[in-house]
Each structure stands twice: as C-alpha cells, then as structure tokens.
C-alpha cells in the first residue's frame, strides 16, 4: 500500500481551499489532479509517506499539515508536534538569534577588537586607493611615508601642504571627492585633511586627523625624532561630542609643539606663545573670511569652482559628470553658504572690507622689523596664514586683497620659502 503514496504529495493552493494531489510517476514525471480533502484528513496518508517524511523536517511538516487543514496537533514519525510546542520553539530560536545578533552588533561597535578589525578592513580598502599624485623631494631622508587625504583648495589642506612642502617631506596625495567621499570610506572621521604615516621599518600606520594636529605632530617629530609618532599623537587626544546628527571633534593641545625629552632651545616662550595665538587666529578668524569673499556673487562663485577644478585636477581625478555636478551645484550651494557664513561670522556688509581688515591685522602683527613672524624663517603661524590664503590664490577675492592691502610682499616671500623647501635642513637634521 505504501508504494503509490510514497510518490504522492498533497497541498492546498494558496488562493483557495481546494486540495491538489501531485503524483510523481517516474515514467511520466509530475502529475497534478484534484484531491479529496476529506480523504486527506481521514487517512493522514501524507504523514505516512516516507518520501514526505524524508523531504521535510518536522517543523515544515507541521506547517504543511496545518496548511492542509489537519489537526492542530499531529503525530509525525512517532513524534507529537502541537502548535504551542512549535511556537515556543520557534519564538525561542528567533529570540536567541536576535539577541545574539544584537549582542554581537553591539560588541562589534564597542569593542577594541572590532576597532582593530575595522582598521584592518580599512587598511585593505586604503591600500586599494591609488594616489592622485606624488610629491617627491629627493632630500627627504625622514623615512616616513606620508599620505595626505585632501581637497586641493581646502584651506586646512593647503595649510598642511605648506608645512610639508616647507620642510621638504615627500608625500602621496589622495584627492577626495567632496560629494561622494568614497576615498574616505575606511574612516569614521569624514573631514579632510587626514594624514596617514607609515612608520619606518615597520608596517604600522598612524592616522592623524585635523590640520593643526598633523602640523604639531610633524613639527614635534622634527625637533626630536626619538619620540615616536604614535607617542606624539597621544598628546593630542580627540574629544567628540554629538551635535544633533553630526559629530563634533575637538583635539586637545593642537597648537602646542611637544618636547617629551628635550627642551625648545630655538624659541623663547613668548615666541611660541605668539605662534600659537596666530595659528589659532588663522583657524578661527581668517578662514571665515574665505567663503563669503570667494563666493560673493554667483559669477565669482562659478569662477572660484572653475579655478578649484583646474588646480585640483578634477578632470583627471573625477568623472565628467562628477566634475560638472561639483562645479555647478557646488558653486550654487556655496554662493548661498557664503551669505549664511557672512551673517554667522558677522562680516561687514561689504565682505571685502572684512578680508582686508584681516590681512592688515596680520601684516601689522608681523611688523616692519621682521621678514616673517618667525623671524628670518617662517614659523607655523606664517605657514598657517599663507596656506589659508593660498587656497583662494586664483580667486578675484585674493587679487583684490593684494591690490588693497600690503600683504603681497610677505605672502610671496613665504610662498618662495615653501616652494624652495627652505625648512628642509630641519627635516634632515632630525633624521
Ligand atoms: N578642524 C579641521 C577642519 C577640517 C574641515 O572642516 N575640513 C572641511 C574641508 S575645508 C571638511 O572636510 N568638511 C567636511 C565635508 O566636506 O564634508 C582641520 O583643521 O583639519
């Protein structure tokens, strides 16, 4: 009797309650016909069917029987499966799975182990990114391999490049797409500049965020390279604060140069204090003059973005569409942003006046007696102010500042010092 049933399945169609009988004939294949539900219920022959038993697990059989309208409790293969037993088992399993997923997820986010895992994954992705260009300075014997993630015309990135170039560091540049930021997928910190330092003689990499921290760490290293980069980074702890959906970062001591083993014989306390004061002024005041001035009108905004595209080699680094989206949408957005920032930072009605005031303030602070604020050589304040202004060098705002203030001679002196790597002796004496 078992033989014909062993190749027969019965199921209830989803659309209605009629039962269908599938008969498998090895010569003909599957055959479908209507089945008698009463016969199905009465005989339970399905549950005795060996191929049915072997095909489906107990839970599936239970639901199958329920779908067929059989009893809530069914004996299958000598085992009693009631709806409540199945439900409890099912809920328990789902509960355990969900709890485990939540715990693992929470653990992954919180644990140090995960940080290492994320960093490891990040590294893999990081190494897959091709540098947009390489700055090679033959005299660089530091052994540090530096990679700068940047926007070419971001003032904070220009500031970092001014310091790297002044000291004659060789470095790779990775131009970040400001819209997609796909080059920063590996990083939780989504701002530029970021510098990655590969340490000499090891495969260890250190990620340094924030322009002022990058500059202070490298400057401290130049004074005493026996202090390791990770050790120096630890003197600039990062504090984060949630500001709505955004994360706000603050880096302690970022304007301080650290001397963990030695003393600063080359500068007085007053000189260092002045340097810190003007570095901070550059970040907190001068930088806010840029957007309202560079994007003062729609025409100037578009012209600024075309200049950014040319110096940032966007044609080379981004697709045609990406470039045009960034130029036209960027110019429109930044024109509006310029007006917002003008009000936020309380610039004068004619924003040029505020830019000229800032330039004059700086020229006065350097004074007539000094070539640079740092004396005969630019210090970090000179390089910061130069870097920030350099970001708008091709814009009408900068040309207006040259014509209407006396900043030009200092600016071009600093530019020459940066481009000729005048601080290279410091880099090489430290290596
Ligand atoms: N305090 C940071 C500021 C860096 C910053 O704000 N960078 C801008 C570019 S100029 C940025 O990346 N903004 C985020 C964005 O573009 O989404 C530093 O000095 O590095």
Instruction: State the major sheet.
Output: 5 strands, mixed
Question: In percent terms, what proportion of residues is strand?
Answer: 5-15%
Q: Name the helicity range.
A: 40-55%
Number of DSSP helical runs: 19
Structural class: alpha+beta
Which distinct ligands sit in these coordinates? Answer: glutathione
Radius of gyration: 35 Å
Poorly predicted segments? 1-56, 67-83, 104-118
The beta-strand count equals 12
Average pLDDT reading: 80
| Order of neighbouring strands in the sheet with most strands | 6-8-7-9-10
Shape: globular
Quote the distance from N terminus to C terminus. Answer: 92 Å
General description of the model:
- With 431 residues, the protein is an alpha+beta fold.
- Mean pLDDT is 80; it is low at 1-56, 67-83 and 104-118.
- It has 19 helices and 12 strands.
- The relative contact order is 0.09.
- A 5-stranded mixed beta sheet has the order 6-8-7-9-10.
- Bound molecules: glutathione.
- Glutathione is lined by residues 151, 154, 156, 178, 190-193, 210-212.
- It comes from Lymnaea stagnalis (Great pond snail).
- This is Glutaredoxin domain-containing protein.
Question: Which characteristics define this entry?
Answer:
transmembrane, 14% strand, 5-stranded mixed sheet, globular, 3-stranded antiparallel sheet, 431 residues, alpha+beta, disordered N terminus, binds glutathione, single chain
